[in-house]
Amino acid sequence: MEQEFASTLLENAVTELSRLPGVGRKTALRLALHILRQEEKSGVALGEAIINLRKGVKYCEMCHNISENDVCPICSNPSRDASTICVVESVKDVMIFENTRQYKGLYHVLGGVISPMDGIGPDKLEIDSLVERVSKGSINEVILALGATMEGETTDFYIYRRLGALPVKITQLARGVSVGNEIEYTDEVTLGRSLLNRTLFSDSFKKDY
Known about the structure:
CATH class of the largest domain: Alpha Beta
Distance between the termini: 53 Å
Helix content: 40-55%
CATH architecture of the largest domain: 3-Layer(aba) Sandwich
Strand content: 5-15%
Radius of gyration: 21 Å
Largest sheet: 5 strands, mixed
Order of helices and strands: HHHEEEHEHEHEHEH
């Protein structure tokens, strides 16, 4: 049965909150009522934070990580190794790898992985911009750091083929990351070791393909 609301404002808030991933209308209602129970300044601060997030955050024009400037703090940091690019699926993965404190190079956020079942092809990902970055000749190594899922490995192989003609070393995470695992579900110690012990992608290609 459709929930009836005494207030149109409350109903609108519940509708918008329920658009968030993993939030149904019952949870959205609890959140909305919780906000109403707080001091007005708390609700206003939450609203302003969301508005500022949406208006102030953009995507780095180099790596597509989130940033408050045209170029993110990682890409603009002169102490980072600009000759190495770690290719990841999402912005969340950048945060995870940074938490390992084992990587000092740059990143490239694809914005997803190839998934024909979901209608996501290579043209919907930031693969062309990756090829463009590497083709400039200043990159020595590209680390393929996608999840060990079928979609992740398909994307790895596609990128490997796209970069194959360029003079760059292509590596991947060591198999400390279990097959079928997403990066976000791998603990930081295991992920750090997998990054440090990365192997040539061509070695796995010879075995698996």
